[in-house]
Amino acid sequence: MFTNNVREWEPRWRATLPVAELFDIVVDSSREGVRKPDPEIYRRLVARLGADPATVLLLDDLEENCAAARAHGMHAIRFDTTDQAVRDVGRLMRLPALVDEPSGGTS
């Protein structure tokens, strides 16, 4: 998980999201002392993942954060709607089942 956050909100969002079950690592700006789109937080993310930036995908609702991820060599998709994000991730990963639009009828 990679989030811009404020420390005061942590108990609330952690209570609503099973963070430990869903994510192997958490890079939280309130703990890091640096926020997206600062390049340092992207360096920390990649280092903690132990990954090549070219193998990392960021989904974010702010284009400036996506642009910073791309500048660091990562893939980035700006999240607008769930359907759009699923299609865009499917295209990036070349997963036809996620890209195909519903046919709306039978042939």
SSE topology sketch:
Blueprint: E1 2-3, H1 10-16, H2 19-22, E2 27-28, H3 29-32, H4 39-49, E3 57-60, H5 63-71, E4 75-78, H6 82-93, H7 96-99
Parallel strand pairs: 1-2, 3-4
Describe the structure.
The strands form two sheets. The chain has a two-stranded parallel ribbon. A two-stranded parallel ribbon has the order 3-4. It is built from seven helices and four strands, in the order βααβααβαβαα. The chain has a single domain, classed as Rossmann fold (3-Layer(aba) Sandwich), CATH 3.40.50.1000. It has 107 residues and is mainly alpha-helical.
Helix content: 40-55%
Unreliable segments of 5+ consecutive residues: 103-107
* Alpha-carbon distance between the two ends: 42 Å
Kindly report the CATH topology.
Answer: Rossmann fold
What is the N-to-C order of secondary-structure elements (H for helix, E for strand)? EHHEHHEHEHH
Beta-strand content bin: 5-15%
* Number of strand segments: 4
- State the helix count: 7
Q: Roughly what is the average pLDDT, rounded to an integer?
A: 88
Structural class: mainly alpha
Query: What is the topology, as strand order, of the major beta sheet?
Result: 1-2
Known CATH architecture: 3-Layer(aba) Sandwich
Shape: globular
Largest sheet: 2 strands, parallel
Query: What's the CATH C level?
Result: Alpha Beta
Number of separate domains? 1
